[in-house]
Amino acid sequence: KASYSIALLEGDGIGPEISAATVSVLETVATAAGFGLSFTPALIGGAAIDAVQDPYPPATHAACEAADSILLACIGGYKWDSNPRDMRPETGLLAMRSRLGLFANLRPAKVLPQLIEASTLKREVVEGVDIMVVRELTGDVYFGEPKGIDVIDGERVGYNNMIYKESEIKRIARVAGNVASKRTGKLCSVDKANVLDVSQLWKDVTTDIMEEEFPAVDLSHMYVDNAAMQLIRWPKQFDTIVTGNIFGDILSDEASMLVGSLGMLPSASIGEPGGPGVFEPCHGSAPDIAGENKANPLAMILSAAMMLKYDLGRDEEAKMIEDAVEAVLDGGFRTADIKSDGDGCELLGCKEMGDKVSEMITSMVK
Ligand code: NAD
Ligand code: IPM
Ligand code: MN
């Protein structure tokens, strides 16, 4: 294909800043590689609530379905935190994932040698870490019914339902089996089967799928509390991790600190082959630094690289972005979140970091 249409969902908080940086990097890559890119902006989250009183408007869904791929920044902010649930930014994000059928969320936590000092952990613990978290994205306690806050026996009771169907576990297990097969073949399924029935089913089904369909995959199981500890104690024991929606949400943020910052972690949300995926950083809208040109755009820029690879079949151009990011880090440029005292690096703003990556791509192809 010579040209691709991308739905661009800037969202809230630092969303517009990191989106601008990412779009300029993508445009640089497209020019260098000689393909076309068109961006269709669409509203999601708080911005959509403010404009049309719907966190995932029909027009946005239509734009997503019509696109070759979807690039999302981040949503959320204090302003909407006490809205009713259907008027929350997060509800829009969840609706998008669910309605597009994006049941698998790939969150790579790969420690770059340039950023070892940015991690709060010791060099020998993080050096060489390369983990892929395969997070189920459209089930679990996020979507289970019934849910709500009701008055029962004279007091308020809040409840959600942690629930997985066998078919949902099977399909995410297959994604994880394929991912692990292309990596080292080691897969750790994380659950809470010692306590939760839903986790026992998860463990049983995952075990069966691996035995029947991925005999070469070396499957292990770990309880989520232990996994949270092991990730910090000795992360190199992990290669691919597969887990449910909420455990994966938590463990992937934890894994970002191995890399050095949440501002470095990209992700790909994918469904059945053929439809567009959503490529989004793991982080949120960072309201504490929004509008200050301080955000790290690299998580979104690396998500764009995942988009080129997974949705557009542009592996070479994806690698150009990844190489350029590493070269910029090699050059000693850092945003605030990955800068450490006395590292001798130059502090850049969000826009300037995006520009550096673009310049690097241009100089690499010359
Ligand atoms: P957050 O990820 O927005 O921020 C956590 C911390 O990490 C903050 O200190 C923030 O400044 C920092 N951080 C995050 N991204 C960064 C970046 N690119 N560069 C530099 N620093 C960065 O999480 P939160 O504060 O718990 O949530 C804020 C809002 O974001 C909430 O409304 C939440 O629901 C939403 N959220 C959205 C997404 C998403 O859009 N996918 C993900 C997580 C949280
Ligand atoms: C993420 C976020 C979302 C999630 C929220 C904002 C709904 O934390 O993308 O990791 O929990 O999935
Ligand atoms: Mn999260």
How would you describe the overall organization of this protein?
The chain is of the alpha/beta class and 366 residues long. The chain has twelve helices and 14 strands. The protein folds into two domains: 1-108 and 267-366, Isopropylmalate Dehydrogenase (3-Layer(aba) Sandwich); 120-259, Isopropylmalate Dehydrogenase (3-Layer(aba) Sandwich), CATH 3.40.718.10. It has helices at residues 15-33, 46-52, 58-66, 89-99, 123-126, 166-182, 197-213, 224-233, 245-259, 298-310, 315-330, 350-365, and strands at residues 3-11, 36-41, 69-74, 104-110, 130-136, 148-152, 155-159, 186-191, 218-223, 240-243, 268-270, 278-279, 333-334, 346-347. The strands form three sheets. A ten-stranded mixed beta sheet has the order 2-1-3-12-11-4-5-10-8-9, with helices on both faces. Strand 6 (148-152) and strand 7 (155-159) form a beta hairpin. Helix 1 crosses helix 10 (298-310), helix 8 (224-233) runs parallel beside helix 9 and helix 10 packs antiparallel against helix 11 (315-330). The two termini are 24 Å apart. Nicotinamide-adenine-dinucleotide binds at residues 14, 74-77, 90, 93, 262-263, 280, 283-289, 295-296, 299, 337. Manganese (II) ion (MN) binds at residues 249, 253. Catalyzes the oxidation of 3-carboxy-2-hydroxy-4-methylpentanoate (3-isopropylmalate) to 3-carboxy-4-methyl-2-oxopentanoate. The product decarboxylates to 4-methyl-2 oxopentanoate.
